[in-house]
Amino acid sequence: MIRQAAKDYAERELTKDVLERYEKCEFPAHHIKELGKLGFMGMMVGPEYNGSGMDAVSYVLAMSEISKVDASVGVVMSVNNSLVCYGLNKYGTEEQKEKYLKPLAGGECHGAFLLSEPEAGSDATMQRTTAEDKGDYYLVNGTKNWITSGGTASTYILFAQTDPEKKHRGINAFVIEKDTPGISLGPHENKMGMTSSDTHSVMFTDVKIPKKNRIGEDGFGFKLAMKTLDGGRIGIGAQALGIAMGALEKAIQYSKERKAFGKELCHHQAIAFKLADMAVKIDAARTFCLKAAWTYDQGLPYSVESAMAKLYAADIAMEVTTEAVQIHGGYGYVKEYHVERMMRDAKLCQIYEGTSEIQKIVISRALIFD
Amino acid sequence: MKILICISNVPDTTTKIKFADNKSFDTTGVQWIINPWDELALTRALELKETTGDTVEKISVVNVGLIDAEPTIRKALAIGADDAFRIDAEPKDAFFVASQLAEFLKKESYDIIMCGIESSDYNGSLVGGMLSELLDMPSISSVSALNIEGGNVKINREIDGGSETLTSELPFIAIVQKGIAIDPRIPSMRGIMMARKKPLNVVEAVESEALTEYVSYEMPPPKAACKMVDAENVKELIDLLHNEAKVI
Questions:
Q1: Structural domain spans, chain A
Q2: Which of A83, A131, A269, B220 has the fewest CB atoms within 10 Å, measured from its CB?
Q3: Can you tell me the distance from the alpha carbon of B146 to that of B148, in angstroms, rounded to the nearest whole number?
């Protein structure tokens, strides 16, 4: 029922304007609001904080159906659920939950996750944004890069360095309103794909953050970032899975309609075999994602499972979407047929929230240091 | 006011229909849904509840079906119905279903009863009319709009060349057509969670007979390619229509 609800919304509503929004780089404000009302923006937060009280398996199913049609909406949903609500829900104070988590989980507004910097992507320990401890507040200066929903979010989860001597143990995490004085936005990034989601750099100039806005103990920030990204991988894995599912569906449909050399493409073994390969990859990715989600739900360690899910799903999404374009031939190169958009979308899955290379580090470390 | 929606459990409209030995519908792999017309009726009932203050106090759904119909009934609860009843019997034919619903309605009182004008599986368009006869209750068919104004119902129905506006005493049965509501509701996550706790009451079926029996099922002939006949060649056209298509 959960999966069907997401599927129905995606097919009925997201398909209406997805191409237009991508072309115009327009944020899907109306859809985020509607998905918020349906309870998709705070799926794993309890009802006491306006969430839907569901498990990660349900989240994966919903994420894949939404992303199947529109990966931009998928990423906004994923960031809000996995990167923003997660930290507040697990480690926030009661006051932070009341003030920030409730509206975020309830879908009244959405959040952004500010970790990456111009000089710190994969190496997140190199935080140059500073949060000086000034007694009853922190003074923040610095720049954050590649922030999804940087311009449209109301709430930020921000990471900054308080004590460089302690290296990564000196990093803190904060929850703040986007319109706090001293915060300014860089221009909207003109991206390869997921263009309906807004991405900005965010600058902090002498921004004062009250002590009570710090999440967790002093120096907990880096750990929070890593724990958050571990779970975020499940969401992005599901997003990549959805993109691949969408591409395969389009490819099958096209191959049934298009004729060449006297028969439909799907009756040519070359094409049929491609479709079979795509289906196998998608099913494997789905199994990975559901396994990671199930492991998470059981309260078991899930870092390796989620890394594998994201790594594999993102890689096959790239393969499946490329093949889908190929199956469409010339039509696949044209925006109207969706698959080229899906291919451009899929690329980002291999990069953000931990590059495929980082996932391999996570997995190999678990193998070597067992 | 209390509203009851009679819902049918039908195969999803994209199902590839198959029959076992031409004698019974093969249900392997079928996805089941609320009959689309019934779903629109439920949507309208929810809209009325949301827009008329306290006038609508309860929306119930009732289904004649076996336990495998329960996921579909739960969806109706997830969409927003307050409670549900399942009359435990296989829906053998329209008269059987109407008889079961009539007995149910003799025990439970509702002001407005809604059914879809047809179900997407058998498209019989029978239950609503039969139900009203069995209960000796007014019914209006092809209802495309239903409003509640000051405790009275205002109904629109499509007729040749226009639309008729009517009212009725309560209780009455509205047999609804497309247009009664525009978009069926997507259940919210909260609705889905609450559906698990809302009452789904199983009611014993009463003695009743089916008046019809399905003897066999046959698939329609597969679509053949279109034969193009030149506009001047009327002789060939007549020949084909007479000898091949056998329609003249």
A1: 2-110, 112-222, 223-368
A2: B220
A3: 7
pLDDT at B227: 81
SS3 A369: coil
CATH of domain A112-222: 2.40.110.10
The tokens of A234 are what?
């499940």
Question: Which of the 8 DSSP states describes residue B180?
Answer: S
Q: How many Cβ atoms from other residues are within 10 Å of residue A99's Cβ?
A: 17
By DSSP bridging, strand A111-114 and strand A137-148 are unpaired
Residues in chain B with pLDDT values less than 70: none
- A239 CB-side CA count, 13 A: 30
At residue B178, the 3 state secondary structure works out as coil
Residue pLDDT, tens place only, B15-32? 988 888 878 888 888 999
Task: Give the homologous superfamily in CATH for domain B2-220.
Answer: HUPs (3.40.50.620)
Taking any CB pair shorter than 8 Å as contact, residues of chain B touching chain A are 71, 74-75, 78, 183, 186-190, 192-193, 195
The CATH class given to the A223-368 domain equals mainly alpha
Are A1 and B183 within 8 A, CB to CB? no
Give the CA angle between residues B29, B116, B152 to the nearest 5°: 150
Residue of B73, B74, B186, B196 best to disrupt the A interface, most CBs of A under 10 A: B186
In A, which residues are within 8 Å of B190 by CB distance? 39, 47, 52
Helices (H), ranges, chain B: 36-51, 70-79, 94-107, 127-135, 189-195, 234-239
Regions in chain A scoring below 70 on pLDDT = 370
pLDDT in tens, A183-226: 999 999 999 999 999 999 999 999 999 999 999 999 999 999 99
Q: Which residues on adjacent β-strands are paired with residue B164? A: B157
Instruction: Answer whether B236's CB lies under 8 Å from B242's CB.
Output: no
What ipTM did this prediction achieve?
0.88
Instruction: Tell me the per-residue pLDDT of B118-145, one tens digit each, with 9 for 90 and over.
Output: 999 999 999 999 999 999 999 999 999 9
B contact test, residue of A38, A40, A44, A45 with most B CBs within 10 A = A38
Residues A130, A141: contact at Cβ < 8 Å?
yes
Q: Count H helices and E strands in chain A, helices first.
A: 13, 9
Phi then psi dihedrals of residue A337, to 5 deg = -95, 10
CATH of A2-110, one of 3.40.50.1820, 1.10.3980.10, 1.20.58.110, 1.10.540.10: 1.10.540.10
The catalytic site residues of A sit at 353
Identify whether the C-beta of residue B3 lies closer than 8 Å to the C-beta of residue B112. Answer: yes
